[in-house]
Amino acid sequence: MESIPVREAVWRSICTKPQIWQCEEFLTSEECAAIRRLAKASLPAKCFSKFRIDLDTDPEGALASAQPKDAAVLRAVDRRTWALSGAPHEGEMPWAVHFTPSEMRTESDQPRINLGLHVDTNNGRERRHLTFLIYLNTIPPSEGGHTIFPLAELPGEAADQSFSEARPLGEMLLQATVQHTGQAWSRDTLEVQEAAAALLACAERLAAAAACPDAQTAPTRLGLAVAAKEGRCVAFWSRDSHGHLDAAAWHGGAAVTAVDGKWTLQKFREAPMSALKGCCIETFASTHQHLRLPCFAGGVRFVDEEDADVPAEQMQEASTHELSGQKTFVRLVRSAYLTKAHGCFVVLGTDKFLLEWNDDLIDEEEYALIKNLKETKQQYRDAFERHSRVKMDVIQIEHVMQQCKGRLVQGFEEYYEHKFGHLVKQEAPEDEGERYDPQEMFDLAEADRLETQHPDAMACAKPDFSDDQGVIR
Questions:
Q1: How far is CA 469 from CA 49, 340, 408, 461, in A?
Q2: Torsion of CA 105, 110, 112, 113, to 10 degrees
Q3: Which helix (H) or strand (E) holds 329?
Q4: Are residues 135 and 275 both part of a single domain?
Q5: Strand locations in 345-444 (E)
Q6: Do 115 and 52 lie in a common domain?
Q7: Among candidates 16, 59, 58, 67, which has minimal Cα distance to 37?
Q8: Is residue 468 domain-resident?
Q9: Same structural domain for residues 104 and 243?
Q10: How confident is the model at residue 302 (pLDDT cuts 50, 70, 90)?
Q11: What are phi and psi of 11, to 5 degrees?
């Protein structure tokens, strides 16, 4: 009986500049092994330098000759990144497995960042804005293999002077259209070459410190080294909240001394060409700065730290209440705006606004009300979308639960008949459906009512004024 993988994985933010999120159980050990098997089929017998293997999820492509279960794992991973990023795959490069062989270090001062540093828009891929990097095997910290972000700013600790001086280096290189440190030495400008060398020196110090975790080194606020751990995934953005290239996103891989080398799976998310017809890459990237959490895809329910261990039903109930509250607030703000010219009290719950009659209504007040209305409607729209995603997650989870129950029953019946002979089945009682108490029935009806009314089509009726009380009904 084939089991259906259903589990929860938690994402947490580990850096805000650049924005980096980390998930410890993005892949299981079995899934990592399956992807390594897919890649090893194309790996040469002897490999002395970093080697890239492209894996296309197309059933007619490179996976046609692969084991069905192994190919299914890669497609499941593809669905997970699709759901998390919230943008379709269109014109992107295929999944890439990178194998970095073990490197014999003969000298203590031998470079650890021997392939240099880069930003992921390198090689003319300007549409890239988000990278998923998944580690397929574990490397002890003392044996290298870290992903080094020398300009990442960590909260809560003070940066020493040497790292503080490194902050402008990344910006200087980007302004010189250098997106890989190796490109700096093809320029005539000595200043650019010195900036690249200084940035590499910062990365070298960070990699050396990461390889010696027991050494007594003073913590700095600048620089992040992510260790290679099987199943771990880091998602980081190459562009900032304004959509511009983030100078803090420079990164590179540290040398590996582990005998088995280092295996990683990488996916670059790019802005779809269809989405760029009406906007530029900066606009698209600025509106895709967050993972879509919670979400359910590829057999995994992804949540952030705040939603971890919260039942799906409770999340749906919370999103319903949030959606209802935002909708009520939209009506409140709109009523305040429409009441502006009528000079009356607006009483709604515990909120009271006194709008005195004034023929000379000031434009600033009207503008503030309109702005407040638009912002509130946007908050309602966001709550509506979150609620829709949560409901879809709940539906998928319930569907998988039913599948699991059915397969468990089928497996038990097969086992019983094999062990003891024919199993006498009682006639199934008539299904009366689920029973709900009055409060549950009201909550379900309220959720259905909210879900049928999209924010952009929400009818906002004009307020009904009472002549004798001046109160909106």
A1: 82, 16, 65, 20
A2: -130
A3: helix 312-338
A4: yes
A5: 345-348, 351-354
A6: yes
A7: 67
A8: no
A9: yes
A10: very high
A11: -100, 140
**Is 427 domain-assigned?**
no
Q: What is the DSSP letter of 273?
A: G
Residue the block writes with tokens 């919260």: 310
Asked if residue 180 lies in contact with residue 116, where contact means CB atoms within 8 angstroms, the answer is: yes
For 263, list phi and psi in degrees, rounded to 5.
-120, 130
Say if strands 147-153 and 128-135 run parallel, antiparallel, or are unpaired.
unpaired
What are 128-138's pLDDT values in tens digits?
Answer: 999 999 999 99
Integer Cα distance of 280 and 252 in angstroms = 28
Residue at 241 is within a domain: yes
Q: Which of 262, 280, 309 is the last residue of a domain?
A: 309
Residues 11, 146, single domain; the answer is: yes
Same domain (yes/no): 270, 341: no
Question: What is d(CA 88, CA 105) in angstroms, rounded to the nearest whole number?
Answer: 43
Burial class (CB in 10 A: 0-12, 13-18, 19+), 58: exposed
Nearest to 70 by CA among 27, 126, 13: 27
Determine the residue type at 43: L
Please report, for the domain that includes residue 76, its CATH number: 2.60.120.620
Range of the domain at 280: 7-309
The residue behind tokens 């669905």 is 79
CA distance 92 to 137: 25
| Domain match, 236 and 378 both | no
197 and 323 together in one domain:
no
Please determine, for residue 214, whether its predicted confidence score (pLDDT) is greater than 70: no
CA 251 to each of CA 61, 181, 226, 401: distance values in angstroms, whole numbers, following the listed order: 31, 10, 11, 42
Contact indicator for 22, 30 with CB cutoff of 8 Å: no
Which one of 309, 332, 366 terminates a domain? 309
- CB atoms closer than 10 angstroms to residue 253: 24
Rounded to whole angstroms, the Cα distance separating 382 from 247 reads: 30
User: Quick one: which of 340, 346, 344, 378 has its CA closest to 361?
Assistant: 340
Question: Would residue 428 count as lying in a domain?
Answer: no
Q: Among residues 320, 306, 304, which one has the least CA distance to residue 394?
A: 320
Q: What are phi and psi of 106, to 5 degrees?
A: -95, -20
232-276: per-residue pLDDT in tens? 999 999 999 999 999 999 999 999 999 999 999 999 999 888 778
